[in-house]
Write a structure and sequence with these properties.
- This protein has about 280 residues and is of the alpha+beta class.
- The chain folds into two domains: about 100 residues, Endonuclease - Pi-scei, Chain A, domain 1; about 160 residues, 3-Layer(aba) Sandwich (Cytidine Deaminase, domain 2).
- About 20% of the residues lie in helices and about 30% in strands.
- It contains four helices and 17 strands.
- A five-stranded mixed sheet has the order 14-13-15-16-17. A four-stranded antiparallel sheet has the order 3-2-7-6, with no helix packed on it. A two-stranded antiparallel ribbon has the order 1-8.
- Strand 2 and strand 3 form a beta hairpin.
- Helix 2 crosses helix 3 and helix 3 runs parallel beside helix 4.
- The protein is elongated.
- It binds zinc ion (ZN).
- Zinc ion binds next to helix 4.
Length: about 280
């Protein structure tokens, strides 16, 4: 059981006297969630952490196994409220519906998710796709937990996973990009005869699919720099060959932030050396 995504304990206490304290209902949940105004919730509508005080009525927030809408809210004043106890874990769920909230210390920033919040998001995605939920664990090679990458851009989350965990549509998409890259001579000089082998192996990995999904959504109008979060360490194949995809998509630089703690940039100009370089012109000797 993933410790970080279980209902947290509620502590019944007196409402703070601060006017910033209030309570807010989430959907059909019977018990209100008592939080401070700054407490971040993951908003599906804004694709971002949103302080509780900024949530709108009807705004959708993530819950276990689905979504819920924010209902009525009211200031608690002096009446007793439930105060969410934040333990050491980075994310947790509250109440019967398991609303995804986050430790209030997280910085809410557009298109990037600070701290460990992003790994709650990848775990959400894992749960929705039947993959193992990791909690605080970091995948290691051959542990069969798969890999989930996510890009926060254009107001959406663009997820990638490995080919064996993809649905048919996702695999078709990656194959289509393989063909497009091949037609554009992106693999020229490399021994690439089939999708998913040799220099095109990286297309079967999570990082590449997140980039492809983003490119699809952006209809090719991609940003020059991006952040890709991946809950597994980037493999050697991806490190070597991802620049081919960046160049193909017109992305200059991707910063990878991996769950294990590594962070590094990959540039479109870091192109690998072809295994079979074309014959060099006569030097004139
Ligand atoms: Zn890889």
């Amino acid at each position: 059981m993933n410790r970080s995504i279980v209902p947290c304990d509620f502590a019944t206490g007196r409402g703070h006297e601060s006017p910033e304290d209030f309570r807010r209902d989430a959907g059909a949940q019977s018990a209100p969630i008592g939080v401070t105004e700054q407490h971040p919730f993951w908003s599906l509508d804004r694709n971002d952490w949103v302080p509780a005080g900024k949530l709108h009525r009807g705004e959708r927030v993530l819950v276990a196994g689905g979504t819920a809408e924010v209902g009525n809210w009211e200031r608690a004043g002096e009446e007793p409220v439930y105060i969410i106890e934040v333990e050491g874990d980075h994310c947790y769920r509250v109440g019967q519906q398991g609303v995804l909230v986050h430790n209030a210390s997280v910085a809410v920033a557009p298109e990037s998710v600070s701290g460990d919040a992003v790994w709650c998001i990848t775990d959400e995605f894992r749960a929705s796709r039947g993959l193992p939920v990791l909690g605080g664990a970091v995948p290691v090679p051959k542990d069969k937990t798969g890999s989930v990458a996510v890009i926060f851009k254009t107001g959406w989350r663009h997820f990638g996973l490995n080919s064996k965990d993809r649905n048919a549509q996702e695999n078709q998409l990656a194959r289509a990009y393989y063909q497009r890259m091949k037609d554009a001579n992106t693999f020229e000089g490399f021994n690439v005869v089939n999708y998913g082998f040799g220099a095109s192996t990286f297309l079967t990995h999570s990082e590449a699919l997140s980039l492809i999904e983003y490119n699809e959504h952006a209809k090719g109008a991609v940003a020059s720099t991006l952040i890709v979060y991946n809950d597994r360490e980037t493999c050697g194949k991806c490190l070597t060959y991802l620049p081919l995809l960046l160049k193909f998509l017109g992305i200059q630089q991707v910063t990878f932030i991996n769950k294990g703690g590594s962070q590094f940039a990959v540039n479109a100009t870091d192109l690998p050396s072809p295994k079979n370089p074309p014959p060099t012109p006569e030097s004139g000797v």
